[in-house]
Design brief:
Diaminopimelate Epimerase, Chain A, domain 1; ten-stranded mixed beta sheet; 4 helices; 10 strands; 20% helix; globular
């Protein structure tokens, strides 16, 4: 998939973000989503969000991310205001993640794992104003729409 890159900027961490994640990230950035950056994959796995607080945030979703053990970075994505407590694999979050990790790691090609219950492995490329996201998908529904 080919998407526009979405650069995040540093911002102050809202109190509801810290309370909702039940931990303080190393840094917080924002774009369409809040992005909370942690030091380790273990911290990302251990997050047990309080969605009552996260629902108060004025954003589409909350990305939590850290360097990975067997990937360049790992993440989870929460969007409780929109009926998605935790998304299994979130392509749109990578519009923000790829520019961030590409710059931080000094790499144009990245390997990512989304640590949801179902999980997902993504192969990413930073093309400046665009990002390329690839991975395996499974067809779960087909349909026809008549207009």
């Amino acid at each position: 998939m080919d998407f526009p890159a979405r650069r995040a900027r540093p911002c102050a961490a809202p109190e509801d973000l810290i309370r909702g994640l039940k931990s303080s990230p190393k840094e917080v950035l924002c774009s369409r989503d809040y992005m909370a950056v942690y030091d380790s994959e273990e911290e990302i796995k251990a997050i047990s969000p309080d969605f009552d607080f996260l629902m108060n945030l004025d954003c589409l979703g909350i990305i939590v991310t850290a360097p990975g053990k067997s990937a360049d970075f790992v993440l989870r994505f929460f969007a409780p205001r929109f009926g998605v407590p935790e998304d299994p694999v979130t392509g749109s979050a990578h519009c923000t993640l790829i520019p961030y990790w590409s710059e931080r790691l000094g790499k144009k090609e990245l390997h990512a794992f989304q640590l949801s219950k179902r999980g997902g492995e993504l192969y990413c490329k930073n093309r400046g104003k665009r990002v390329i996201i690839a991975g395996k998908a499974v067809l779960y529904r087909e349909g026809t729409i008549t207009v």
